[in-house]
Amino acid sequence: MWSYNNTLRYFIEFSYNGKNYFGYQIQPDAISVQEELEKALSTILREEIKTTGAGRTDTGVHAKKIFAHFDTDHELSDELPRRLNSFLPPDISINRIFKVKDDFHARFDATYRTYEYYISLSKNPFTQESAWQHWKRPLDIDKMNEACKILFEYEDFTSFAKLKTDNKTNICKMYKAEWEQNGTELMFTVSANRFLRNMVRAIVGTMVEIGTGKLKPEDMRKVIEDKNRNAAGTSAPAHGLYLVDVGYEF
């Protein structure tokens, strides 16, 4: 049972497979993760619950670890995560729910975000929906990692930003960017204080053009300095992208 109290703020840590959703954020006439989450919370808690997410993923993008906060007038039971998981569809999983200070914010108090992008270097029927199948042309991983180092020279990533968004700034502080190969699987890990819409997929698409020889590693500087989305490569497919961590100073 819940005991009545002043308004309390809770953080919810969860994960989802984004295949069936038009991103995290609620969309008109389109199914979203946020809509499913709020519907489940509101039904179980018997009050209207609104969540604020750590960020919004694009259509088809996955999240292995993401946070949101919500407010309620009730002290929540430890059984709530299990009850939510029973109520939610199989492609959304609640990992934990915990109380935070009433002014702690899932989006604005995040100190970093980390994404991973997966590419399959051989035709793999088991990763068709979880990695970019790029097996027809080889990729030069060393050159792609050369280009990664150039990212740290800049903070304005306008060239990788989706056009016509409400971003007040395109400045991002890059913390990590590297490619690793494990057998026939290639993984790009990138971490920054914030990301622009479509930014990671645009970076990956540009990196792949470098890996195939269409661009040279040093061309990354011109792409960034142009501050023009048309200077960068085509966005990599959404299904290979995963939000894997959001950092906070709890």
Automatic annotation (TrEMBL):
Can you state which reaction this protein catalyses?
A: uridine(38/39/40) in tRNA = pseudouridine(38/39/40) in tRNA
Q: Which domain of life is it from?
A: Bacteria
Q: How does it assemble?
A: Homodimer.
Q: What is its EC number?
A: 5.4.99.12
Q: What is this protein called?
A: tRNA pseudouridine synthase A
Family listed: Belongs to the tRNA pseudouridine synthase TruA family.
Biological process GO annotation list?
tRNA pseudouridine synthesis
- Protein purpose: Formation of pseudouridine at positions 38, 39 and 40 in the anticodon stem and loop of transfer RNAs.
Sorted keywords for this record are: Isomerase, tRNA processing
Does this entry carry the keyword tRNA processing? yes
Annotated HAMAP family? TruA (MF_00171)
Q: Which residues form the Pseudouridine synthase I TruA alpha/beta domain?
A: 15-109, 155-249
Entry binding sites for substrate: Y115
Q: Which residues form the active site?
A: D58 (nucleophile)
Q: What enzyme class is recorded for this protein?
A: isomerase
Any one GO molecular-function label of the UniProt entry = RNA binding
Name the species this protein comes from: Chryseobacterium jejuense
